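Kindly inspect this chain:
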Amino acid sequence: MENTDDPHRDLPDLPDLPDLPDPRTPLARLAADAWRLTDGVPRAVLGIAGPPGTGKSTLARALAERLGAGAAYLPLDGFHLSNDQLARLGLTDRKGSEPSFDVAGYVALLRRVLDDPAHDIYVPDYDRTLHEPIAARHRVAPTARLVITEGNYLACDLPGWRTAHDLMAACWYLDSPVKVRQQRLVERQLAGGRSPEEAAGWVAANDAPNGELVEKSRERCGRILSTIGMDMFN
């Protein structure tokens, strides 16, 4: 008798990824490797960690897009504390640092996406125009057997983050040259309205130490990816 309660019964045969353009491309190969994490389980979580400015969100979104209905995107940035809460905690000048995230809320959502694959689950994001987190920008649909999450601190050996890491079927580390990261981060701050001097100061005082913390988590990741010498996002 057919099980009509199975949310994945109509999912296309994704393990072989027959519809991926040019399976020889780095992104296609990564997508195939990511999909293998779902073997034998209703749903799996893939984490992508790395310092600020490496391109984690770009890669995560690209993988989710390649995998189509079988995957969903869950950014850590949705768990930024609001500006009001940062002010209350005295963290306004450390926005983006490890304590400026709601790690308990992030862990709770990871648990929910694993425990409740039969229902839509809405996911927050960070809006770089509003400079605030916003609710329900993304959706984990019942068809999503792989949830791709990304963020700086996913592999950090710290309270809360250890629990998040344990919920992931795999955690990959994305790296890029320091100069490339710094340029991207300065451009991000300029786009957010800071002057060149303010942007450079913010990167030096905030993003750089955040990156140093994240680099210590590298060895806790099962795979190291680099953007050097290839465009893995196309």
